[in-house]
């Protein structure tokens, strides 16, 4: 009896998770106290089996509900209406959303800071590379990015490529430095000779023969200077990427014949025999081809011993490329000179001022530039005491 009184007094204060109502033949048989006022029977959906159960959300005051109706297996038409109180669930979900929003608001600056730290750590190797690169000047081209630090795998290739670029740049600067020194040397010799000849003429009065000899020597040095400058200008033109080739179909034998005819006068005093072998058709700039072939033949005539033979051999064809080889029977060239033979101003004779035996040192450099402009290449084979063979390789017409 005491328990019943306690339950009766606290019934309205107890928290219920759901409300229930039983209808028999459409009439109320029983319900949770207070359910009729809060959740009228008309709010509930029609009763269906469990497989097609319908849940209807309903909001009343500060409470949220899910309503459903279930048929009960009984002799009479019995329906169970249930209202599930989800107020706390929705409040919990709302609090969770708020907490999640606050969490993200707090995490954004933390994530930004962590991202900046991670980016700084990832970019630290690039920063070190940049500092080394900034310290490299034209006076310190020998510096390289060291491979000893544990670079990330993704940057090892970059460091190697950068060092290779510095190697190429240093080599280019070295060639430019040598080129400047060679130009100064080549210009100084004829200018010194020219100045000396004129100074000798002015030291005291001389007869006509001496004046003529001095003028002839000065003229020879002036012509040498002119030829040197013209060769330098020619090199600058053919090495310019914008230089346009005038390709035309030509016969290699006709080009060789033209060059041979041009150098016959120079070869006659030495009794040299110039012979052409073979024939082929190629596409080339005729003027540049004559220049390249003439430079090669001039070297052969200069170094060929008296009474020897120089052969211009033509081989190949349009499909696989054409080769023109100029062979002489001269003293040959030592093996250590061959790799640099096509460099500007490179000469095999240490006595570089000997005009009778030396040219300007630009002839073969011009040959290489012309061949590269045609997409071909120039090569040399030589054995001391057995002559020299210079080969000009032209690509196929289909290339």
Detailed description of the structure:
The chain has 399 residues and is α+β, with helices and mostly antiparallel strands. The chain folds into 3 domains: 84 residues, Beta-Lactamase; 80 residues, Signal transduction histidine kinase, dimerisation/phosphotransfer (DHp) domain (Helix Hairpins), CATH 1.10.287.130; 151 residues, Heat Shock Protein 90 (2-Layer Sandwich), CATH 3.30.565.10. Helices cover 47% and strands 20% of the residues. The strands form 3 sheets. The chain has a 5-stranded antiparallel sheet. The chain has a 5-stranded mixed sheet with strand order 7-9-10-12-11, covered by helices on one side. The protein is elongated. The termini are far apart. The N terminus is likely disordered.
Give the overall average pLDDT.
80
Inertia-based shape: elongated
User: What is the radius of gyration computed over CA atoms, rounded to a whole number of angstroms?
Assistant: 50 Å
CATH level-1 class of the largest domain = Alpha Beta
The strands making up the biggest β-sheet line up spatially as 2-1-5-4-3
Tally of domains: 3
- What name does the CATH topology of the largest domain carry? Heat Shock Protein 90
Largest sheet: 5 strands, antiparallel
Assembly category: single chain
State which percent range the strand residues make up: 15-25%
Strands, total number: 12
Which spans have pLDDT < 50 for at least 5 consecutive residues?
A: 1-10, 350-358
Helical content stands at 40-55%
Helix-strand sequence: HEEHEEEHHHEHEEHEEHEE
- Which superfamily, in CATH terms, is the homologous superfamily of the largest domain? Histidine kinase-like ATPase, C-terminal domain
Question: If helices are DSSP runs of H or I spanning 4 or more residues, what is the number of helices?
Answer: 8
Name given to the CATH architecture of the largest domain:
2-Layer Sandwich
- Give the end-to-end Cα distance, rounded to a whole number of Å: 114 Å
Structure class: alpha+beta
């Amino acid at each position: 009896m005491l328990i019943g009184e306690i339950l009766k007094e606290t019934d309205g204060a107890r928290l219920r998770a759901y409300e229930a109502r039983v209808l028999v033949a459409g009439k109320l048989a029983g319900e949770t106290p207070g359910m009729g006022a809060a959740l009228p029977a008309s709010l509930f959906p029609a009763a269906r089996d469990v497989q097609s159960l319908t849940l209807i959300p309903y909001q009343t005051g500060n409470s949220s509900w899910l309503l459903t109706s279930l048929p009960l297996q009984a002799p009479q038409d019995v329906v169970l209406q249930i209202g599930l109180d989800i107020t706390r669930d929705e409040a919990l979900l709302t609090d969770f959303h708020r907490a999640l929003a606050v969490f993200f608001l707090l995490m954004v600056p933390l994530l930004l800071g962590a991202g900046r730290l991670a980016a700084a750590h990832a970019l630290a190797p690039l920063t070190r590379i940049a500092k080394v690169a900034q310290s490299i000047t034209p006076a310190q081209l020998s510096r390289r990015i060291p491979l000893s630090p544990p670079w990330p795998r993704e940057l090892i290739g970059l460091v190697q490529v950068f060092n290779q670029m510095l190697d190429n740049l240093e080599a280019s600067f070295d060639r430019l430095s040598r080129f400047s020194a060679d130009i100064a040397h080549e210009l100084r010799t004829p200018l010194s000779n020219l100045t000396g000849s004129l100074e000798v003429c002015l030291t005291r009065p001389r007869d006509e023969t001496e004046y003529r000899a001095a003028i002839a020597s000065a003229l020879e040095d002036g012509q040498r200077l002119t030829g040197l400058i013209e060769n330098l200008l020619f090199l600058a033109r053919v090495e310019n990427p914008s230089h346009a080739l005038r390709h035309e179909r030509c016969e290699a034998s006709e080009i060789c014949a033209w060059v041979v005819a041009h150098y016959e006068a120079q070869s006659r005093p030495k009794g040299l025999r110039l012979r052409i072998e073979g024939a082929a058709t190629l596409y080339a700039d005729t003027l540049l081809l004559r220049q390249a072939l003439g430079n090669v033949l001039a070297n052969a005539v200069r170094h060929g011993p008296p009474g020897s033979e120089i052969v211009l051999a033509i081989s190949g064809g349009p499909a696989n490329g054409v080769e023109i080889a100029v062979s002489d029977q001269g003293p040959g060239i030592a093996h250590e000179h061959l790799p640099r033979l096509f460099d500007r101003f490179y000469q095999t004779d240490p006595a570089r001022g000997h005009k009778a035996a030396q040219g300007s040192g630009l002839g073969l450099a011009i040959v290489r530039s012309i061949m590269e402009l045609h997409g071909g290449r120039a090569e040399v084979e030589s054995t001391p005491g057995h002559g020299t063979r210079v080969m000009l390789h032209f690509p196929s017409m289909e290339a």
